[in-house]
């Protein structure tokens, strides 16, 4: 049995950065961390990494479209990000006749660049610590009262800090609501598609290779940020000009070696490294298996339709890719959490905290209270997943429930006709977007399958009252899948949401009776009203868990006072550092630090959905026509490499930099053996998968013929 001292050392090692663990806030970069970076190969000063007054690397890094990272690579606003980050914009620009997803696209001049409707980038302009102000306003509050007051205080900070400016503000909590920082951004909304490889390059390997190494995917796309002639953000206009960034990244042609220093800037979306053992157990027992099972069914039903024609595939491509990307993650995360006994690790950490906090009234019975909160919520956790991923996994059901606001407007007394008119117009606009991506066949099958899964997998006491008995009396035996198929068909054939003539008649004279009797709306509203019985439990659990977690992390910071500790990722700009590094995932297996064109051709399967390739790539590869992008040591084109950097979702598209701050690749994936990384970083197995910048340039130049793009770059 471990002694208390041994457990304490385990605890300290877990929460402070080990090996290459840590997503660091640049403006709070500690001296010890910076010195470690220099020791491992960094050649830049702190001010060259992050500076308020002088151009620095941080000025070249942007939030791309609210969920990814991008980087500026030229003095004319040229931007690199991942193919999967630009996927929606590429799909929107595509038609059956001009299918850029399938064929790729390269603008040979500014006039050929395609406006990307709805796409935006955000530049970080400043960070202000508002912890004292927020904490003063929260004194003595807890639970729902604290949460409500925090929302009001945050709104005040946002209003004050943006008034009279063109900036946007986000007040973000750190260390589980023990610190608050105000991030100020400048948003550019005129973003245009410059280039993309064919999907057979940008998604090469598909779901089979997702989260796997070696991975031979050319996951990149190219955009340009435009501004008004005065350099300020502006809505799209034909006379807008390429923006001139304060800083852009130079591109290294040198390549990488095993052990080379690597650094990644970007916007990691979320980690939960301070999660308790109770949270880990909930994920492995209930949440992840439910998500994986529901997504698996939806993907299979969509794919069956996508195989039938290019038009259907194009229509469903974006939604399918979004669902698929994290289907495999949730499955792998659960397996790795179990394999490496993260639950046991957390229990050791919690025991260390108990030993330290003994006799401190503020932390009395902290973990007993955690256990009580989880025990109360656990019976309802699967239900919440089945609502989000199951019932509303049907696009029709998801759209239908958006009409709840209209029902409220139609039943409010007295009627406000102006309000009703506005709600109807908003819903009509949303309906157009919904119909553009709707495939009735796959959606009908999804609704039938997920409704059936809800019946079988959710306790009968949590079912909507009378719903399934009514379904049985009208459509047949509930043990028969045909029953649910018949029910789904009746919804799709009877709803006015899919019938333009009936929809027009309804919006011209909307009334609550017609809305409530619509089969699609009735289905969605029935399940939503039923879930409302349990929402108070969900809200109570969330508030209680947040309060307890805040105390836990507060104590953690006290325990580690004087040490440099990084906060959980929360989609704020971070830097991680590590090294290009091979690894051994299990006995007898060795993974090299790079993969090359040789492996691409080995995987090539003509006509295969995941492993087909463009003819010009195959031809150039077989001729070894790699030009200046060839790796001289290998006599081959390096396609990707791996590093030990600590990243997570949101880092997609992040620049991978060498010690001089030069671009050597784009981060786009992680490895299967370390999919527990959101909760527990594995110092031995964690790897970030990156597309080599030389492969990016080769695709642009040799395959796309877009030498104009290459000429914009500063190559080193």
For the record, the CATH architecture of the largest domain stands as: Beta Barrel
Q: β content, as a range?
A: 5-15%
Detail the poorly predicted runs. Answer: 1-18
- Structural class from helices and strands? alpha+beta
- What share of residues is helical? 40-55%
Number of β-strand runs: 18
Bulk shape: globular
Mean of pLDDT: 94
Instruction: Write down the Rg.
Output: 27 Å
The CATH topology of the largest domain is Thrombin, subunit H
Number of domains: 2
Biggest beta sheet attributes? 11 strands, antiparallel
Measured distance between first and last alpha carbons: 55 Å
Query: Can you tell me the CATH class of the largest domain?
Result: Mainly Beta
The tally of helices reads: 26
Topology of helices and strands:
Layout: H1 4-15, H2 31-40, H3 46-49, E1 61-64, E2 68-72, E3 78-81, H4 87-93, H5 100-103, E4 105-106, E5 114-115, E6 121-129, H6 131-137, H7 143-162, E7 167-174, E8 179-188, E9 190-196, H8 199-202, H9 206-209, E10 221-227, E11 241-242, E12 261-266, H10 277-306, H11 310-339, H12 342-357, H13 366-390, H14 395-401, H15 404-411, H16 417-437, H17 440-457, H18 467-475, H19 481-494, H20 500-508, H21 512-517, H22 519-559, E13 574-579, E14 594-596, H23 597-603, H24 615-623, E15 638-643, E16 655-657, E17 663-670, E18 688-692, H25 693-703, H26 707-712
Antiparallel strand pairs: 1-2, 1-6, 2-3, 3-10, 4-9, 5-9, 6-8, 7-8, 9-10, 10-11, 12-13, 12-16, 14-15, 15-18, 16-17, 17-18
Helix pairs in contact: 1-12, 10-11, 10-12, 10-13, 10-17, 13-22, 14-22, 15-16, 17-19, 18-19
